[in-house]
């Protein structure tokens, strides 16, 4: 009967130890249901994952809860959409340190029960879990630092033997130090049957302060001649509860259930509406169990994602000459709003809109080493920097002569460059938006650019020259391609034959509107049209037979030109028309003469 009572009492220890391991939120009454936010995963912010545990007043997990049983708030603002799922969290890595009392009073069954239970506990851990062992008697011994090698830990436990005094405080302090710097969940478990022998260099308060500072819950199991008040003080201060038992008979069960409850959790997932601003935010979780609310809070600081910058076209110490085009590759969690460039700590340029690129004319600085610093800022105020050292040496210089930077092109254009090099130039490559257009291996270094091969809008022209020694120079400009003006004669048609004159009509299509159209005959302007309909006539003064070149030059509102030309043949007046014309003229002359004579006779007869 006594054995049964002892087991029941020791089972109570198990449940209380669970409290001490951080499975409940501090501040709840001992007979209340416990809701605890075990950890918050915000590495994929704004996606948040929170691991929750809900346990009965006896420390047993409460299952069967769904999202309808929970409400959550972030920074005081309710979160309307979230998911709750029950999990056995086998992926979460845990780190333990067992602080084992091996003083003389542990001799015999107590030390045997402790080692046996600890070994089974180690065997049930996951492959990535870590565990360390500290023993204490007259002094503290780190039997095994935290490792994931379970065989090594079990072998270390087998070396424990009892004998000596009890430096309890020093052992606890050393156990906390072993867990310092551990990033995943950490737990300290103390098994003891006595009190500190007053030979420790640390005090109980120092242990408490260190545990609180490191955020490590301390679970205490005391049996035999322990100072129950002291263990309770330690557990309460580190958000745990301590219980005292007469013997060590149920340690095996305690360790098994501790691990089980550490693994049983609820996974809360939601999309945060908070800004990634690097400040502390509170998460409040409330669960309804049998009509009663139980809450837990935790704070977290979303990890600010770094801005990374790379300059793949250049390496440290590379020789730079001529015009150097900087096009950093930037990775940022938020939109970039600013790029500052410094040369030798002196501001070179600031760019506040895409593209975040810059052409550096190395001819404006002295030859020799120069430090280039790129400073990137996003719209959340995050910063990233990249520094590279380049050596300026004007061994090869290339310049785009035409078109000019910022030109607007609406017709086939020629890209011309000039190159100056101490060595023979091996190749000059022409790129349009990073796509190779053409390469030249000998002067003149010029290529035709058909604007119809690209879409209207802004485009980059990059020219890269290299000499036989591998030196490289480049120049870059930005141009705007405008849709061409469509201009053609609707009448007359090319090759038409006309007698004396003809109607001239044009079909015009221009995106930016036509300012004027100049009509020329044999390169002589005969009309200027400023509005539709785009029509006119050949002047009646043109009677000479022959071929005539009629051209139209259209100018849009942006000053772009388009020109078209046709050839017509003017046949003039036929010979028969001349005879008729002469006859008509003679007849008119005779009639006029007769009229004059008639008038004269009337006068004389009068």
Radius of gyration: 47 Å
- Helix proportion of residues, in percent? 10-25%
What is the third-level CATH name, the topology of the largest domain?
A: Rossmann fold
Structural class: alpha+beta
Strand content: 35-45%
The CATH class of the largest domain: Alpha Beta
CATH architectural arrangement of the largest domain: 3-Layer(aba) Sandwich
Q: Main sheet: which strands, in order across? A: 8-7-6-9-10-11
Mean pLDDT: 83
Number of domains: 5
Low-confidence segments, given as residue ranges, are 1-30
The counted number of beta strands is: 39
Number of helices: 8
Description:
- By secondary structure, the chain is α+β, with helices and mostly antiparallel strands.
- The protein has five domains: about 1-305, Rossmann fold (3-Layer(aba) Sandwich), CATH 3.40.50.410; about 310-390, Immunoglobulin-like; about 395-480, Immunoglobulins (Immunoglobulin-like), CATH 2.60.40; about 485-570, Immunoglobulin-like (Sandwich); about 575-605.
- It is about 20% helix and about 40% strand.
- The chain has a six-stranded mixed beta sheet with strand order 8-7-6-9-10-11, with helices on both faces. A five-stranded mixed beta sheet has the order 16-23-22-19-20, with no helix packed on it. The protein has a five-stranded mixed beta sheet with strand order 25-31-30-27-28, with no helix packed on it.
- Strand 7 and strand 8 (about 140-145) form a beta hairpin.
- The protein starts with a helix and ends with a helix.
